[in-house]
Design brief:
heterodimer, A: 233 residues, alpha+beta, Jelly Rolls, 6-stranded antiparallel beta sheet, 7 helices, 41% helix, B: 192 residues, mainly alpha, Rna Polymerase Sigma Factor, Chain: A, Arc Repressor Mutant, subunit A
Chain lengths: 233, 192
């Protein structure tokens, strides 16, 4: 069995197991890791399918509201326009004033979507770290032998460095968010993780670790170690 | 195949559920599965109101052909099959007004109501964005509990084609959730 064959079977049925697949997995660490990732993803898919999101994307003709035969009165059109403008203002106001909790929630969701990030057992080489930082306009002073995972991830409309750093209290996720300003330190606890988002440079840095505990020291260290480069015009 | 009446999932069982003999248990059995059917239909149709219509019509069809159900233990799979076919039938018979999912999601892209399990928000929307040819086997497998061979029979595909679609569905979800795509060495699906 080739790796392609194994990954097709794993991707199609992550919980499945055949003798040939198990034999291949015994000698292929990469495919074993792939199966772990797919099983973690599958558990999330199963949870996600328990409740569909409340969005309407398809409408049956019979569900459509009948259109009025005559043109609506002018005052109705003005009222509709005013309503749309007011709604836009309301949405803009809510968007601008949205709480930092939504940023924290997005950070947690992103980390949960990459469960393999905390499973890395080998350090990332310098080229891997450079690739993760590329385009983000930052440099790291941290010793590269502490970084176990480094990816450039699409997050809230930008590519941001997503790192997992080895610390005394275990692996900690660090996301360098150049485009996310926060007014002050924000701590959060969600999905069994403790996180903190701190202002840094022109943006912020998010740090997450499993379990409870104080991670301010990690955040403080990252504030010192991240160097913000001038943005290209 | 899609528009044919579902065959009895278990034909060798001697126990029969006769609507005339025991209407109440059958009704209760069907009604007890309504939440499952609704969730299943919702993931297929991507619209709550449409899903309710599909389930209502499906239960009606199931009631009419209740004598074909030989084993109450197979009722869930039997009903899910009816729902899937009813959904397919709806698309074949009616022209639906399709709205881009990106557009629909964009409408909701502003501050969204708090969800108790907000961490799954991204994944739910990623599943909704999957094309029907990938979403349908995935939902049949995970929500319906159907095997690859059963999905292949239901969708008139080869088992290999089903495996390929399931692989690609999960691979697309990896990408839509920000993970790296696995190499797709699945090749073509092959003819059914």
């Amino acid at each position: 069995m080739t790796c392609d064959d194994a990954r097709l079977l794993i991707g199609a049925e992550p919980a499945g197991a055949t003798a040939a697949l198990e034999e291949h997995l015994q000698s292929c660490a990469a495919c074993r890791q792939f199966r772990e990732q797919m099983r973690a993803l599958d558990a999330d898919i199963r949870r996600a399918l328990e409740r569909p999101p409340e969005i309407a994307v398809v409408r049956a003709p019979h569900a459509a509201r009948p259109r009025p035969a005559t043109r609506p009165a002018a005052w109705r059109q003005w009222a509709l326009a005013a309503s749309v403008v007011l709604a836009l203002f309301a949405v803009m106001a809510l968007w601008l004033l949205r709480p930092g909790e939504s940023l924290a929630r997005d950070v947690v969701a992103h980390v949960q979507a990459e469960p393999e990030s905390w499973l890395a057992t080998q350090h990332v080489d310098a080229a891997g770290i450079d690739a993760a930082l590329k385009g983000a306009g930052v440099e790291l002073g941290i010793n590269s032998d502490k970084i176990m995972y480094a990816q450039s991830c699409w997050f809230r409309g930008h590519y941001v460095p997503h790192l997992v750093v080895e610390t005394a209290r275990g692996p900690a996720t660090v996301m360098i968010l150049r485009h996310e300003q926060v007014s002050g330190r924000r701590e959060f606890h969600e999905a069994g993780m403790t996180g903190v988002i701190v202002p840094a440079g022109t943006g912020s840095i998010a740090v997450l670790a499993r379990g409870a505990g104080n991670i301010d020291d990690i955040a403080g260290s990252m504030q010192q170690e991240v160097r913000w480069l001038p943005q290209k015009s | 195949m899609r528009n044919s009446q579902p065959e009895s999932p278990v034909s060798s069982m001697s126990t029969r559920l006769s609507g005339a003999d025991a209407p109440a248990p059958v009704t209760e059995l069907f009604e007890s599965m309504r939440p499952d059917l609704l969730r299943f239909a919702h993931w297929l149709a991507r619209d709550r109101a449409l899903a309710e219509d599909i389930v209502q019509e499906s239960l009606l069809r199931a009631w009419r052909s209740r004598d074909a159900l030989k084993d109450p233990g197979a009722a869930r799979a039997w009903l899910l099959t009816i729902v899937r076919r009813e959904h397919a039938r709806l698309y074949e018979r009616k022209r639906l007004e399709l709205v881009s999912l990106d557009e629909a999601v964009e409408t909701h892209a502003g501050p969204r109501p708090a969800e108790p399990d907000g961490d799954l928000f991204t994944l739910r929307h990623a599943i909704m964005r999957l094309p029907i040819e990938y979403r349908e086997p995935l939902v049949l497998q995970i929500l319906g509990g159907f095997s690859t061979e059963e999905i292949a029979r239901e969708l008139a595909l080869t088992p290999t084609a089903v495996l390929t679609r399931l692989f690609r569905a999960r691979n697309k979800l990896r990408v839509l959730c920000g993970m790296t795509a696995a190499a797709d060495g699945a090749g073509s699906e092959g003819a059914p």
